[in-house]
Amino acid sequence: MRPRPITDRVQWLGAIDWDRRLFDSLIPLPQGTSYNAYVVQGSEKTVLFDTVDPTMTEVLVRQLDQEPPIDLVVAHHVEQDHSGSIPAVLERYPAAKLICSPKAKGMLIDHLALAEDRVVTVEDGETVSLGNRTLRFIHTPWVHWPETMGTFLEEDRILFSCDFFGSHLATSDLYGEWARVHRPAKRYYAEIMMPFRKTIVRNLEKVRALAPAMICPSHGPVYRDPEPVIAAYEDWAGGEPKNVVVVPYISMHGSTKLMVDHFVAALIDRGVGVEQFELSTVDLGELAMALVDAATVVLGTPTVILGPHPHVVQATYLASALKPKFRWASVIGSYGWGSKAVEHIGEALSGLKPEILEPVMCKGLPRAADFEALERLADQIAERHQGLVSA
Ligand code: FEO
């Protein structure tokens, strides 16, 4: 693939990874991904923003054959899907300097065994001239590592944001229409950015102040109109939770399933939105996306050796680690002879400080009293959700 022009001075380079299905050996990529790099050619200097995953270095190198010599390389982020081809690029351009945030310098040297004298650090707001183009470096810590930053190309008002606003979406489209990118961008936010949503809110203020005309992220398509993705991030990271209950569950002999079915129907009857996930077949990215908006999480679990089912342990850990904004939580489920599942789940969620609503655990098959308790739990949730808008 050849470099693709964005303006007369800016080009997309990079690799589309159509076939990748897992990131970090953890995150499902149902639509693949891309590793975007960009070249900006000023009247005096040429800069390369980021590189590509080391598995695709050759793709980038072939594209660089068609570009003028690179004077500067900017590393916005140390994670290897963007930095992994930097050693090959620096070897190809022995006079080029690598620009990064002060925090990134040691990390780049640690991760890529770079020579220290190749690396130059820039402060937040510092500028570098390419001649007729100016780069302004914008520190955006914790999107999603501590060293992350973006670059604002002042004359063109283009923000190169790296992971920030990215989407795992392999596509031949250089530009993404929001209707298509919305869900991949939300999945990306949920999986990668949500744990840092408080710092993301502060970084969004910086982006708003820049009023970019275009955003070029390092995964997925370029945003010709950045407003929808900025507004969506403001809602995902800083908005009120929605009138949604997420119900991750699993059942071993059918009792927990009977309870989940009754409970979900009771919520729907009361006008509460529900997202239900069977945990032996779940796509964890879909579950993470549902957690972005949920006001309440109710885990459905049978009991395994006194504790929750291991798949529920995993879902609870995920909910705790991603730090979503739900306010209320509960547990429903069953046991054969005894259970500490509620206590285990409550402990696992304690860092998020949700209000724990009265759990409903039944011995063996659920009976009339258990179904009545589920109705009361649905009542409590509907009452607490009053005033919340739909997702
Ligand atoms: Fe796309 Fe955090 O790397």
Describe the protein in words.
The structure is a single chain. Helices cover 35% and strands 26% of the residues. The protein has 391 residues and is of the alpha/beta class. The protein has two domains: 4-238, Ribonuclease Z/Hydroxyacylglutathione hydrolase-like (Metallo-beta-lactamase, Chain A), CATH 3.60.15; 245-382, 3-Layer(aba) Sandwich (Rossmann fold). The strands form five sheets. Strands 1-2-5-6-7-8-9 form a seven-stranded mixed β-sheet. Helix 5 (178-193) packs parallel to helix 7, helix 5 (178-193) crosses helix 9 (284-293) and helix 6 runs antiparallel to helix 7 (227-238). The mean pLDDT is 97. The structure holds MU-OXO-diiron (FEO). Residues 77, 79, 81-82, 144, 163, 218-219 line the site of MU-OXO-diiron.
Give a brief outline of the structure.
This protein has 391 residues and is α/β, with parallel strands linked by helices.
